[in-house]
Structure formats: C-alpha cells, structure tokens
Amino acid sequence: MTVVRQLRDFAITACFAMLIATVAFVVVRNTELASRQIELARRAAAAIAEGKQLPDVHAVIVGEATPNAKRPYLRTRQVFDKGAWRPLAAKYGADDKLFYDAANRFEHAAPSVAGAVHAEMLPDGTGRAIAIQPAKLAGLPTPMAETGDRSAAIGTAVAITAPARPAPYPWLVMIGVLGLGAALAAAGALVGARPARVGFVVGVVALAIPCMLWQAWIATTAIALVGIGVALAQHARITDRIAAGMRAHRIALGFLAPAALSMLVLVLVPFVIGLIIGFYDHHHGTWTYIGLDNFGEILSGGGRPLDDPLNFWFIFGVTVLWTVTNVFFHVTIGVALALVLSRGWLRGKGVFRMLLILPWAIPNYITALIWKGMFNTEYGGINQMLHAAGLEGVSWIGSFFTSFSANVITNTWLGFPFMMVVAIGALENIPKELYEAAAVDGASPWQRFRHITLPHLRPALGPAVALGSIWTFNMFNVIHLVSGGQPGGATNILVTDAYRWAFERGERYGMAAAYATVIFLILLLWTVFGARIVRRKSEGET
C-alpha cells in the first residue's frame, strides 16, 4: 500500500473523527460549565440564606408578596440586597426581573419542590446560573413597609452567578493529534501491508486521545470503530474502488455535491441530533442521559388507561383513523372530479381545473385559519347557514366527533386537488381505443371503469396515496389551528402531541425527540411495506 493511498483514507477518516471529537468537546465543555456554575449558585444561595455573601455572585433574599398600598390588586415584594431592604423593581437592575420571576415560580411550585434547592442555567446564553431555596427572615432587619412578628416568616434566597464563557476550542491539541495520527498511518504504510492497516487504526485512535482526556468514552469508542471499519474496507479494497469511481464520475458528483451537502446539513444532521436527544431527559435547563426510558414511557402509555388522550396508543389510533379517513376522501373526491373534468362534453375545463386547484395552492395554515373561523360556534359561517336554514348550531369543538369532523373537512379541502391532478394525468394517458372496443363489446359504464379506468389509475395513485398518507400523518397545521387537539387533547395526533411535550409540558425535549423517532419508524415501515404491496398488485395484474 502506498503512502498516498494511506494518507488519502486517513484524511477522510480523520474528518469524521474530528467531527465526533468536536461534538464530544462541546458536550463536555457545556456540561462542565453548567455543573460549575450551578454548584456556585447553590453555594451562594445557601450562604445568603444564612446571612453571608459570596464574591462575584449576586445573591439576595426576596420577601413575601404583599398588596400594593395604592393598588391592592397588585402585589409587590421587598428584597434584602447588600445588607438592606429595598423595593424589587426593574430600575435597580435587570436581575430584579429574574429575582421576581424566580420567587413567584418557587412559591407556586409543588410542596415537594418548594422546600428544596432548585438550580438551573439561565437560557439567555450568558453562561449564568440561578439557584433558589427557602430562607428564614427572622435574623434580618424588618422592611419599612412591614410590621409584626417575623419569627416564622419565610423568604426566598435567590443567587445569580456572573456570566461565564465556556472553554475555547483546543485547536493546537487537535492539530497535534492530527499530525501524530498522520505520521503513524504513513509509517505503517512504509513498512508493509499488514503493518499499514495496524498503523492506520493506531493513527485514527490517536485522534481519540482528547476524548479520552475529556472522559468522553462514547466518542472514543465511536472513533475507534470508525478506524477499524475503514481498515477492514482497505483490506477488502473497497476504498480503492470508491476512489476510482469518484475519479471516473467526478463531473456528475460535482453537480450532485451541492444538493448532497444541503441534504446532509438540513436533513441528516438534524435527524441524528434528534435521535440522540431522544435518549436524554431535559428538565429545567439540564440534560440527563436516561437511555430508552423515553421510548419505554411512550410505548407503555405512561401508565395511563387506553382511553386517556395522553396514552400513546390512543393518540396512535386517532392518527391512523385521521390518516385513513382523509386519504379515503382525498382519493374518492379527487378521482370523481378527475372523471368529470375528463369528459369531452364539458366546456371550460381549464377554468374548472384552475378553481379546483386553488385550495391546494393556498398555504395550508391560511386555509386552516379560515376554516377555524367558519367553525366558530357563535360567529362562524357554517353555523350561520344552519341558523338561516332553521337548524340549531353545532359546537364544533365540543365533542370528539364534531371536532374530528371539523379537522377532516378542513384537510379534505386541502388534499383532494392533489389526487385530482394525479388522476387527470393518468386518465389522459389511457388509450381511447380501449373504451371504444369495450363499448362495441357491450360493456357497461361501470365495467369500463372497473376493467379499464381503475387498472390504469392504480400505478399513478399508488405513489400518490403513499405520499398523501405521509403528509396527512404529519399534518400539524390543521390539528393545531382548527381544533387545537380539543376537547381535552382527544383529537391530537402524534406530531401535535410531540409538539406539546416539547413546548407545553415542561419542555421535555427528549420525549418530543423520542416521539419524532417513533413517528419516523412508523412511516418508514408504512413506506417499505406499502411499496411492496403496490408492487405485488402491479405484478399480479400484469
């Protein structure tokens, strides 16, 4: 093996190894910064609760909320800061808003939380941490606005650390291990074939030295496995064949590179990050590795009964019902309109096609908002028409059936034009001679549709149904904007429930990412097996 080929393979492998090492460094660096700042904030909060002050930490004791003298419906607080009480107001600094919010949240927390120390990183990107714990006010001077016995009064000790910057990227260390790895790989190539592979693996493993120092064992193992895998590919001469193919097709690859790079950045990287996040739990700004717990909680239903709207299997059943119902109406209405628009006696086909495609052309969130207004109980257009006809209005979001129906009507309006366009294209490719021959043989319209039209529509509608199923399965806008998952979350589908785990149920991003992974696997299975079913039917007909 030549040194050039060895260094070529090492350079490509080093790119992946450096990417893994960089991700490990960022994770370790951020984790260490958060641990250090949170521990400092905890110690500062404990110290101020005992009347002491740590340097470089803004720590105060926030008093209990009291009605404002002029406006009793407003509540104000006093804060013990730098040895004296003062009003808690924004004019004293930006930290006062954080103190006020922290004291409010701490006091309204569950009893098990309110009596403990709570600390987290502030989400403002400054590297600051905040810690909160109860503090007795007995040993402190009495604020001017308060009187009476304060021996049993309880305040809130709040500490905010100074901004901190994470450690800089170790460029010199990474360059050093990169040079060391390249030297080991080249030295192995100079000795012989088997030492070349050993030198290659050792050179790649040398890139994992920083990960070993950071105790990032998962990254270390990943880099070692990458090195071993490429060495085995070298032994099978796979790397040489890949390099030869890239040289032979370098022009085509040059055209594909921008699209491939975009797919890598916009699809593959977020997918991998989401997959990894699914193995972690996010709570109050901190991430904890929990393995498969998120997936176990999802698939077990979280201990909830099957008819609970928060149970995964209930939501999955609603999602399947939602998808099947919508796709049925999309295909039925779309094919029916396509058959009408393909008739020779119909005039103004272009105008009708343009008008019927408009629901598909308008952004779906705008259409969803329009239909939401139409389904309004008091002022909606649909209930107004019912009243005009002497009928009673419907509370569209009041029950599962009506709320689900409102969602289906909206999404059917959005989805039938796509199936109509696909069916029109397929109908125009059916030879007219087939219909003429069938008419001569005495075939009825239904027989012509069943034995001529439908078989020619299936090859076009198969992929369209598969694509429409995926779109409908993940139709977030309609559910979120029309029914909002009401009543009681009963009309949520999987994708809207994942959104609620991320942004409405304590920022459980790990659970939302696990939901996304489960959704991906479900759609992957549907795509694979659905394609096989369509292929078998097509082969059986031919």
General description of the model:
The chain is an alpha+beta fold and 542 residues long. It has helices at 3-49, 95-107, 111-114, 171-191, 193-206, 209-213, 217-235, 238-248, 250-277, 293-299, 312-341, 349-361, 364-374, 381-388, 400-428, 432-440, 445-473, 476-483, 494-503, 509-541, and strands at residues 57-62, 66-67, 75-76, 78-81, 84-87, 118-121, 129-136, 154-161, 280-283, 286-289. The strands form three sheets. The chain has a six-stranded antiparallel β-sheet with strand order 5-4-1-8-7-6, sandwiched between helices.
Q: What is the number of helical segments per DSSP (H or I, 4+ residues)?
A: 20
Helix content: 55-70%
The outline comes out as: flat
Please, what is the average pLDDT?
87
Ends: how far apart?
53 Å
Low-pLDDT sequence parts: 110-114, 147-152
Largest sheet at a glance?
6 strands, antiparallel
Tell me the series of helices and strands, N- to C-terminal.
HEEEEEHHEEEHHHHHHEEHHHHHHHHHHH
Placed side by side, the strands forming the largest sheet appear as 5-4-1-8-7-6
* Helical/strand content category: alpha+beta
- In terms of DSSP E residues, the strand content is 5-15%
Rg on CA atoms, Å: 33 Å
Number of strands: 10
